[in-house]
Design goal:
The chain has 273 residues and is of the alpha+beta class. It has a single domain, classed as Creatinase/methionine aminopeptidase superfamily (Creatine Amidinohydrolase), CATH 3.90.230. The strands form four sheets. The protein has a five-stranded antiparallel beta sheet. Strands 1, 2, 4 and 5 form a four-stranded antiparallel beta sheet that branches. A three-stranded antiparallel beta sheet has the order 3-12-11, with no helix packed on it. A hairpin with a 4-residue loop joins strand 14 and strand 15. Helix 3 runs antiparallel to helix 4. 48% of the residues are buried.
């Protein structure tokens, strides 16, 4: 089974229905959350380091090498490398590439590219996972707007995280904002629970109906990751078996934070602020 942000792909036409109650959701203890905070912050620090290196002329393989070095320096392990056969430490996806781009020593970042970096690590038995799409040099106004809307859609989803709300509230926040700005929400890949495993229940879609889905409870930790396209929401996988691109070759963006549901609301675990 290919590396994916969901254990299964959702239908491209149907919104998520009310929960199937057989989900096995691991509610984290205070001690678990302490460890997840450490893993999340480490992951965010490595991503920040990569954002400072990312520039025209840099290879995606070089970014991967830096990421692995930094993760090991923390005493952690790369979460993606070897996961279901994935060959690298990070996913680097450029322009119309949505997710799972494989770093390559011959792939140079160009001025005007938008570059998505997805990174995960394992530390003390718990995973960290975060992603962001960056501008390389001067990008087009349309690309800049895509990044702004995708980032804000993540913020809007996070604002919906509190006990008693449902996953559909997060999904609706992303979808309604993205579509009101003329963009499409990818259907085939979604967010996920995270903790002792990289991918846990529940799935966290970016499209859906408010008031539906699994109810949020304190102790839940989820990776919320809007994946937004400037064109249609259809995607396809390239011949390398990993890289997912938009079917119409339009630009796409990907942002991700790990978020804990607290007694009073939320805590972003992959923020450096």
């Amino acid at each position: 089974m290919r590396f994916s942000k969901a254990s299964v792909k959702l239908s491209g036409n149907d919104i998520p229905k009310n929960p199937a109650p057989k989900h096995q959701i691991d509610l984290k203890s205070d001690q678990d959350l302490d460890k997840l905070r450490i893993a999340g912050r480490m992951t965010a620090q490595v991503l920040k380091k990569l954002s400072e290196v990312l520039a025209e002329g840099v290879t995606t393989k070089y970014l991967d090498e830096i990421a692995e070095k930094e993760i090991l320096r923390f005493g952690a392990k790369p979460a993606f490398k070897g996961y279901r056969g994935f060959p690298a430490t990070i996913c680097v996806s450029i322009n119309d590439e949505l997710v799972h781009g494989i770093p390559d020593e011959k792939r140079f970042i160009k001025n005007g590219d938008i570059v998505s970096i997805d990174i995960g690590l394992l530390h003390d038995g718990f995973y960290g996972d975060t992603a962001c799409t960056y501008a390389a040099g001067k990008i087009s106004p349309d690309a800049a707007r895509l990044l702004k809307v995708t980032g804000e859609s993540l913020d809007r989803a996070i604002e919906q995280v509190k006990p008693g709300n449902r996953l559909g509230d997060l999904a609706y926040a992303v979808q309604s904002f993205a579509e009101s700005n003329g963009f499409s929400v990818i259907r085939d890949y979604v967010g996920h629970g995270i903790g002792r495993k990289l991918h846990e229940d529940p799935q966290v879609p970016n499209f859906g109906k408010a008031g539906t889905g699994i109810r949020l409870l304190p102790g839940m930790v989820i990776a919320i990751e809007p994946m937004i396209s400037a064109g249609g929401y259809e995607v396809k996988t390239l011949k390398d078996g990993w890289t997912v691109v938009t079917a119409d070759s339009r630009l796409c963006a990907h942002f991700e934070h790990m978020v804990a549901v607290t007694e009073s609301g939320f805590e972003v675990l992959t923020s450096l602020q």
